[in-house]
Specification:
Radius of gyration of chain A: 33 Å
Oligomer: homodimer
Strand order of the largest sheet of chain A: 15-25-24-17-18-19-20-16
Shape of chain A: elongated
Largest sheet of chain A: 8 strands, mixed
Number of strands of chain A: 34
Distance between the termini of chain A: 26 Å
Number of helices of chain A: 34
Helix content of chain A: 40-55%
Largest interface: A-B, 49 and 49 residues
Strand content of chain A: 15-25%
Chain lengths: ~900, ~900
């Protein structure tokens, strides 16, 4: 319904009442009533005992601004009528000195909007009604405290008087009385402060604080509408593309009090256990208390149910015992709410003189384990469909279920904090080098590898360690990526810690820890703790398998894994991976038994020398690939040919140099010189990817041959279908692919000839450069598949090195320059447009082009949603992310437009 | 005209004759006659004495392939008729043993196409006609040598016999005769070789070599048409998008001989001097000689003109004296050709028994100085318009005119070769460090700074040196970019040389040069030479100014310069720059008198410390800007705020560290630690550009303040209009610009308040990241101008670091993966699309958005053409490139679509 210029003169409905089990509105009327108003109407319509009230619609806001800040003629009468209904329902009266009605006034836009007036509570108090409040509550201190709070809140948000004006008065008063805490002030003190507040208001504004509750009410309504056009709200709307003509609604609701005697109470209830998900009624309450008393924790709350007694809540009487009738009503509401909202609810309630009021209900927060159980149970109970159940789980929460977690009951001494790079909780002895990590692990010790940062040469140590801690690097630093891939606990960029690995010291403030000292890492929170903190093992219950089955049924995207070791590949299969989307061959090159040969290859000056070194590596590569093909039999395996800058493999220490020189039969000085020659200013943009294949074709030739030999071997051995997909990294031009595909095809033909076996294979490319995305049509003329390498594509599109971003990305997030780390969640605006371009142009040329993603984003739910929306065929992620991706892919199908989940 | 299926049965013209001052075709018929056929027809039609001949049209080729490799019925008759006309013209007959006619047969596609049959010469020789040839030439050895050459050529290209078959026979024969050189063989030897060739052909093919000249002719015609469909030609067409149905033509032309006696001659003529451009007839000839004798240089040729005698050509009689009638005819043709082709011509001619034949005419190659003079003269003579004259100059050739060049007469010993990074020729003493360079220069010595590569800390040494030589890096390495900016001679990436700067040795093969030894660099060829090679100083004649004036009149693009020093800015003004498009403030930071303060700023741990250091720099920056504003009064000056990774400024040596620690009053160990902390893995993608401004706002604030103070100062002092354009580098998001523009606007307001002067200014951004180009609409909401930083944009779009590209770009160019170094000439397909996108999206939001380019490409003609085509407002380039850019911008307007020049 739109609000025309002339509706003010017609009999138009401006005010929507709710309460007493009825309402003019419902949950679907957010546009007219705002989020809060629509929800209150919905609860009331459900028959819940919501404190009565009414909502002035957003149309009034629009009318207000179109008519020089006046209200429609009929508004006052409608408000009066609605107010009358509240008074009748509660038997109280606005401004009555015996039974005064107090109300709250809240703004309510369609979406919550910072910068707008939020809330005025206790409106209706004045010098007369405060007496009624005293009489009703029997607590004069509470009444005057409420009065001065109301003055302060109203003075600030409605009368625009600065906070400090009130604070100064209070401080001066306390100073005069020689006290420092508010709690030391009594009723007379608050009475006095109320007086001083009123004087100050009169001084400042030239008119006294309005004693007339109706004047207070219209003041608050005007303040809400006025705040729609204040500078902060305008800026916020501009930044978030919220149209100005949406307007705000104003909701006025009766205040109810849980502190008016022993027949009053206030509490919180969950319809199921938020910790375990069990279908039990769970909650706490306090007799004769305000809501904030529950939160403040000054008094220990009591259990709602007899069954819940003793479980943290002490064994004081349950509400089930003290207020059986109210309890029964609440228990009945519990069922009704779950049926209606079809999810576990978190309910706030107040009992005012024996009468139950529901203040709020919302989907309850829960642990990952509870979320899983509740979703599966609700589907089993027929409350939600399987599809809906899938939507109830935050995919990333699954991570908690796959790794050990800290025992929540344990005490812990946090000595540092970094980024939660790879989940799980692990304790172990501090070691500072990969070699020591490996040796300690061989002795059966749990160790935590502590480094400033890690490099590919630390891989064996990372594998040996229970956890990895670095003081530098971000969520996609080497340590983070590798640790997630291996399922190792990892905290990175703990910049408050300092590691002096020569001295063998980890400094954390006053703590100086040495090698062998024990610490615990929480990879889900980023915390570093002293000593061993107990952990809880993961229990993959039947619910997990059930939900995953539903997800597999629902999703369209295939989920593959990024893996190069047999262990990782096997783990990923266990987690449901349908093939390998990225096997990084260079990761196979760092093993101790081959790094010397690899280094020999790199320092080679001629193709012949290089071939000689490669000949040593070739049989190992063949074995590597054969292992993967066996594990992934029947599924495709995408093998990326050598990608990283060669200098990553260079020997550094004198000993390493000597070893390589010895193996290659050259002078160590030569090796040293060559290492210097191969050093690069910006290795990420250097001599890597297919540039290696172009300049040193013998490397790719050896790798291709290893692939075809391994495939033929596994085929011969097992008869299983082996489907290698050979991926050329970092291509920017069609010609690179032409040259390298010709090489691969030649090797394939030679091996077909030699083995007599035809291995079906594809040759494709990674799209990881902006130019590749733009020229996708050309590339697709040669490439049979695309795989988006979104790590590199993000680096080049943003011009940000993920290894170096830690020095400014935190500031960027703080200032709202980037909402989320673009290396974690795909930047759909920039990088995403390149993906869309590449998909469209690639498929225009080759309609059956297989397209996937194998960057870190392949395991991020928001990014997976985007992948679904642009029609990719598969996502590939690290093994421990596979279940997350399966669920996220299922949700992405349901989301359709891909927008819904963001609203939750 | 298209060739239908049935035209073979109609009377259709297939053959186009030329000769005797007439022709069936003309230059515009390339599609039908191929390039060669059309040109010969044109010359003939002009009345030039072209050896007569005919062209079989491309339609025959098409017909041939549509009819199972048969010819149209009427073709034989048409060829016979055309052959008859040739015979009549020359009084010779095909196959006649007294006066034999010999012909050449050539393929002729629209564009020259490698992989196709090229040429068969001397067709018509057989055992009988060879005798006539002997009689006519009086030179039996020549006749039999021609015969065996014909057999070899025909055998290879028509009969498909491998080269080595002929070579083996010749080698065996020479071995038997005990000689090694062809010149040692006499007439009987060649006669014998002819016999052995014929036997081999008979053995191989089972039939003898065709003695019938008509059989030879049709064999050659068939070979040309057949070669259109050979594999190499097909591949070439595919790579160059040449449609298969274009077909090829076949041109048959009479051979003429300049070696049939003393009334015969052969030579080359230029219509003007190719060295100076002077309007004099210039050329050489040899009496009784073949064309190849002129080329081979065995005999010294004689001058055409009396005036030209003694000028290198010795003082043997000029043709003007020996063959006055022929000379007069040639001199008359000279004028006719220049008038017709409207450019200086390079003419090949032969005199056969007193009769002049013109074999070829084409636009003559010339030096840059000649090109300039000829273009201006031709326009003055009314032969071409000013606009055409502008199109006659290769803009980059102007570079030669602005720098000293090597004396072409000097002898030189080349000891190494690198990339020609910055033109000019300079000799000087070898120095290995910037400090020594500076000290030597202070003593008045010319030095060449030799480094593996340069860094910003070498700037003072580069300034002091006459030339810079590096052994690493590409055309846009630091050394190359800075040297071009300064106008210093520079050769980079001379990878054959080795510099051991500790030992103080430059190794070039066997040469070991020490500090103080003299070398010469040629920055236009990339050569490194031993000792001092004499050079010629540039002379900017009036012609240069004239042509530049025409260019300025014709161009639309504004040309600015990249400059930060007063010297560079003044040079650029002298060369016609209309403002500064890029002032790199960081270049101002390396001066000895401020680097310590800059380093102090960088190692600062807190904003306060940073401000303290900045306070020392601020007055210097203000002076810098004021100097530039004075020089560029009335023109805009774009100042880029600090851009490079901070660690570029870090102190390295102990002495530097101590100096900084001292200035900052901290422990050297601190400085050392901070330096390690600031090191980055990929500095190009690191903490730089506006990321510095975001994290350390005090830096940009100081710079902005210096700009406004300097502008106000110059305004007050001179009343000149100062137009600063403040450029925010490396933005990827709108929000970065919002935050930093707010900062700049605040400083502007504060300074306006303080100085009472309003400085008009713009705030804009560099578009140098793919994301910035894609999100241009958002950025343009904040930015008032865009400047394309195509160096960085190329780096990120391609994912190639220009500092590291030398290890693979040469291979890439060799394999045709990139046609041109994308850091020199804009990659229009990839990077160019991003530019187009940014222009369109930016202007959609802000129609008056000022857009320019300030990467190295701003001085590259092909890139400037692209800038014109997408509607940029200006280009900005280094000072010495400004004239090039002015000319290129003028040509770009004329080109319209921007394609024409590529065809030249």
């Amino acid at each position: 319904m739109s609000c025309g210029e002339d509706t003010g003169t017609h009999t138009h409905k401006w005010v929507y009442a709710f309460g007493d089990g009825r309402a003019d509105g419902h949950a679907g009327m957010k546009e007219l009533l705002g989020g809060k108003g629509a929800n209150l109407a919905e609860m009331s319509r459900l028959g819940l005992p919501v404190p009565p009230g009414f909502t002035i619609s957003t149309e009034v806001c629009t009318w207000f601004y179109r008519h020089d800040r006046r209200y429609p003629d009929t508004l006052v009468a409608e408000v009066e009528a609605a107010l009358g209904a509240i008074e009748q329902s509660l038997g109280a009266r606005f401004g009555d000195r015996d039974l005064p009605l107090l109300v709250s006034v809240r703004s309510g836009a369609r979406a919550s909007m910072p910068g707008m007036m939020d809330t005025v509570l206790n409106l209706g108090i004045n010098d007369a009604t405060v007496e009624g409040l005293i009489r009703r509550s029997g607590d004069p201190r509470f009444a005057y405290d409420s009065y001065r709070r109301f003055l302060q809140m109203y003075g600030n948000v409605v009368l625009n008087l600065d906070h400090h004006l009130f604070e100064d008065i209070l401080e001066a008063y306390k100073h005069g009385r020689g006290v420092t805490l508010d709690t030391e002030l009594g009723v007379d003190d608050w009475h006095a402060v109320v007086g001083r507040y009123q004087s100050m208001i009169t001084d400042r504004l030239g008119t006294p604080f309005p004693q007339d509750p109706r004047a207070q009410l219209w003041g608050a309504i005007g303040a809400v509408f006025g705040s729609w056009m204040n500078q902060r709200a305008i800026t916020y709307r501009r930044l978030h593309d919220i149209p100005e003509d949406w307007g705000t609604a104003v909701t006025v609701q009766a205040m109810v009090f849980g502190n008016m005697g022993e027949d009053c109470a206030t509490g919180v209830a969950f319809t199921r256990s938020p910790a375990t998900g069990e279908n039990v009624f769970y909650g706490e309450y306090l007799v004769n208390a305000q809501g904030e008393d529950v939160v403040a924790g000054i008094r220990t709350p009591q259990s709602l149910t007899v069954a819940g007694k003793g479980d943290g809540a002490g064994d004081k009487p349950a509400m089930e015992e003290t207020m059986p009738a109210v309890y029964r009503e609440l228990a009945e509401i519990r069922c009704r709410l779950e049926r209606h909202y079809r999810d576990m609810q978190d309910i706030e309630f107040t009992v005012q003189q024996g009468r139950l009021f529901i203040l709020q209900t919302r989907n309850g927060k829960r642990t990952a384990a509870a979320a899983l159980k509740i979703a599966v149970d609700l589907a089993a109970e027929g409350v939600v469909t399987q599809e809906e159940a899938l939507g109830r789980l935050e995919p990333t929460a699954l991570d908690q279920l796959l790794h050990p977690t800290l025992d929540p009951k344990a005490t812990k001494t946090v000595i540092g904090r970094g980024l939660p790079a790879s989940p799980g909780a692990s304790a172990g002895r501090i070691v500072f080098t990969a070699d020591v990590a490996e040796k300690s692990a061989e002795r059966g010790e749990q160790v935590i590898l502590c480094r400033v940062e890690t490099s590919p040469e630390d891989i064996h140590g990372m594998h040996a360690a229970a956890g990895i801690l670095t003081t530098r690097g971000g969520m996609t630093s080497h340590a983070a990526v590798v640790a997630r891939g291996m399922g190792r606990t990892c905290v990175v960029g703990a910049s408050g810690l300092r590691i002096d690995h020569r001295a063998g010291v980890l400094m954390a403030g006053a703590h100086h820890l040495a090698e062998g000292d024990v610490i615990t890492l929480d990879g889900s929170s980023g915390e570093v703790m002293l000593g061993e903190v107990p952990t809880i093992a993961p229990a993959l219950t039947g619910d997990f398998a059930t939900l995953m089955g539903w997800a597999d049924h629902a999703r369209r995207l295939v989920v593959r894994t990024n893996a190069e070791t047999p262990q990782d590949a096997a783990t990923a299969r266990k987690f449901g991976a349908e093939g390998i989307g990225l096997c990084r061959t260079e990761h196979m090159f760092f093993d101790a038994d081959r790094i010397v040969a690899v280094r020999e290859m790199i320092i080679a000056d001629t193709p012949e020398e290089r071939r000689a070194a490669l000949a040593k590596i070739a049989p190992m590569q063949t074995r590597d690939f054969a292992d993967l093909f066996r594990i992934m039999a029947g599924f495709p395996v995408t093998i990326r040919l050598l990608d990283p800058p060669l200098h990553e493999f260079l020997p550094h220490s004198e000993a390493e140099i000597a070893e390589v020189a010895d193996a290659a039969g050259v002078d160590p000085q030569c090796v040293h010189q060559r290492a210097i020659q191969l050093a690069e200013a910006n290795p990420m943009l250097g001599h890597r990817g297919c540039r290696l294949g172009i300049t040193f074709p013998e490397i790719y030739e050896t790798q291709a041959r290893a692939i075809f030999r391994a495939a033929a071997e596994v085929d011969r051995e097992t008869g299983a279908t082996v489907m290698p997909e050979i991926m050329i990294p970092l291509a920017a031009t069609r010609r690179e692919l032409e040259v390298l595909k010709a090489l691969i095809d030649r090797v394939a033909a030679e091996e077909r000839e030699a083995t007599g076996r035809t291995v079906p294979y594809l040759v494709g490319t990674m799209i990881e450069l902006p130019r590749a995305a733009l020229r996708a049509a050309e590339l697709a003329e040669v490439a049979e598949f695309f795989s988006f390498g979104t790590n590199d594509l993000t680096q080049t599109t943003f011009g940000i090195s993920r290894d170096d971003s830690a020095s400014f990305l935190p500031d960027y997030q703080r200032l709202g320059i980037v909402a989320r780390d673009p290396f974690v969640t795909l930047d759909t605006d920039g990088v995403g447009e390149l993906l869309s371009i590449a998909v469209a142009r690639g498929r225009a040329v080759r309609p059956d082009l297989k397209i996937g993603i194998c960057g870190e984003h392949g395991g991020d739910p928001a990014s997976i949603r985007f992948c679904e929306s642009i029609g990719l065929d598969y996502v590939s992620c690290s093994p421990f992310r596979v279940p997350i991706a399966r669920l996220a892919a299922a949700q992405a199908v349901q989301d359709g437009t891909g927008d819904r989940r963001e609203d939750r």
